[in-house]
Amino acid sequence: MESPHVNREAVPVYLxxxxxxxxxxxxxxxxxxxxxxxxxxxxxxxxxIRSIRQVMERIESDPRxxxxxxxxxxxxGRMLAAKLIGTDLIKNEITTHTLAALTIAPDAQTIIExxxxxxxxxxxxxxxxxxxxxxTVCAAGTGxxxxxxxxxxxxxxxxxxxxxxxxxSPASISGRCTVFAETDMIHKQQIGVGRNEIVxxxxxxxxxxxxxxxxxxxxxxxxxxxxxxxxxxxGIVKEFERQTGHPIEVFPYxxxxxxxxxxxxxxxxxxxxxxxQGFELLKREFAVDSFTxxxxxEECTVLRLHRDAKAVSFWNDRCxxxxxxxxxxxxxx
Amino acid sequence: xxIGLPVELLSFEWVxxxxxxxxxLVPDVQFCHVAAEANSGLQTRPLSEGDACFPFKKMIRxxxxxxxxxxxxxxxxxxxxxxxxxxxxFRAFPDLVIMNRDRLPGPEKATSIIDTVVDISxxxxxxxxxxxxxxGLFASRLPAQRMAFPRPESAxxxxxxxxxxxxxxxxxxxxxxxxxxxxxxxLNMGIPEILNGQGYGVVTPQDLDFQTxxxxxxxxxxxxxxxxxxxxxxxxxxFMHVTEEMAPAGIIYLLSFNCGVDALVRIExxxxxxxxxxxxxxxxxxxxxxxxxxxxxxxxEAFLDVIDGITTR
Lengths: 333, 313
Hints:
- The complex is a heterodimer of chains A (about 325) and B (about 325).
- Chain A folds into three domains: about 10-95 and about 260-280, Nucleotidyltransferase, domain 5; about 105-250, ATPase, nucleotide binding domain (Nucleotidyltransferase, domain 5), CATH 3.30.420; about 285-333, no CATH class.
- Chain A contains nine helices and 13 strands.
- Chain A has helices at about 50-60, 80-85, 95-105, 145-155, 160-165, 180-190, 195-215, 235-245, 255-270, and strands at about 10-20, 25-30, 35-45, 65-75, 90, 110-115, 120-125, 130-135, 225, 250, 285-290, 300-305, 310-315.
- In chain A, helix 3 (about 95-105) packs across helix 9 (about 255-270), helix 5 (about 160-165) crosses helix 7 (about 195-215) and helix 5 packs across helix 8 (about 235-245).
- With about 325 residues, chain A is an alpha/beta fold.
- Chain B has about 325 residues and is an alpha/beta fold.
- Chain B has two domains: about 1-140; about 155-310, Rossmann fold (3-Layer(aba) Sandwich).
- In chain B, the strands form three sheets. Chain B has a four-stranded parallel β-sheet with strand order 2-1-3-6, with helices on one face. In chain B, strands 9-8-10-11 form a four-stranded parallel β-sheet, with helices on both faces. In chain B, strands 5-4-7 form a three-stranded mixed β-sheet.
- In chain B, strand 1, helix 1 and strand 2 (about 30) form a beta-alpha-beta unit.
- The interface of A and B includes residues 76, 130 and 132 of A.
């Protein structure tokens, strides 16, 4: 089959990939204009290598031949993603979300981000992030929570926003923890409360939980930008407006904002970069495994990347024994 | 004689001096601070630990694991040091270890536990407690106490050490928290080494002279908000001292649990931080048995980006 790229001039781009716990996002920015040429939002499904491969397939199958000038990764799977595509531009999701929000809304003073399992607030003043907070051990205020409850109610998570907006008297649902929320929901269903009311109550409780455990009294000032997959839910947006007293702005690309920020970060990188190897993913076999190093009491879980059944990279060791080759021999147990 | 002294207790400067003193007076004594791996089963079996923070639970497990390996287990009942109260859990620490020891089936049940009450506000108190500890450890062959109990390190010596520690770094971060958190790489999740790796020196309250911190904290004492807990005074004094005297690039407050005392310190530090009007970025990190190192690394990276103002470049 003929390549879709024959006789076409390569389009120089910056690539951002955000590998989250639930979804993987990609954004391609045109060098120069910084226009979004392509973006994708797909479920990680517990297999980040597969989802990153899907991203690379999408880029390669585009009729426009792209030349990746620089690529950056973010999200909880950023290290793995960076190893797979061969980049040293790795940035935490707080910074990439800030870069994305400030590119679209330079005057933003508060950034709310709610993803699959993480939620965060970033306080910005004078175009600079000055404070932030992330959820800790509780996922009650995140997208996974909504997913789970949508399943229990037998509704699509995508429909929850409209359902919440249709409710006139939201049910009172505990948002402190998913277990209690579920108990409340079962009780409300049993006594005959309507699904729209329950969904609206869930939106209220999620926002209440977020403000109590993530925002924790930080000063929320407008303009407030809302990013992350949960920003698609209009019921949550309305609740944020009601509970904070500020209009909430949801911009295009809110769902891929982390990847967008990563692409912006890549565009700002100076100096020589290692060669982009993302398309290698489509030609070779990659796998990742882990082992526990018992060389000291830290007992790090060392992650190891295999290319064509050969270990090519290590990370997650605190001392650098494997990742930086600080000591001879790569013993393992 | 082998004496077990849980490694967590060594975070207290007074305990380190006690160890030094015993070692001087009875040279053939051997201290063990952590158990050999063979006994790690004692660290993982279900124990009665009370409703306490992670560092406290860890300390109980260390003490339990030491039992089969030592002749005496020295776990002083810490009530007060430098004239200030310690977390009340430390008073109950020997009781919890004794209760768990008595449930053990093996010979470790017979290991004697020295749980001398430590209530120190003066040099005289130090000498009295020392005498009691020695009596407990060496009842039949009590050593002559020819030398005075070791004095704490002077403020000047501490300052010189801190200066040498920070010398390789252009910028510093104040890492504020309890000594037992900051001096244990497992409990502090490697934060000092991560910051060092990113080119930041790390100042902790334990690098500073406690008497100085105590005086600084006293400026904040009034009626209902007097911080009479030693650890709380140390954190409060360190925050005030570093922000006034050292201009750190950032401040991290690391705690393990929002217990009453730490919750109060957290509010107090946040309130003092507000008065700085954002001149120094500050982050609160909670590190307990549920914390993952990856989460801590993400927050530290973002915090360093805030310090570097990376979003404006």
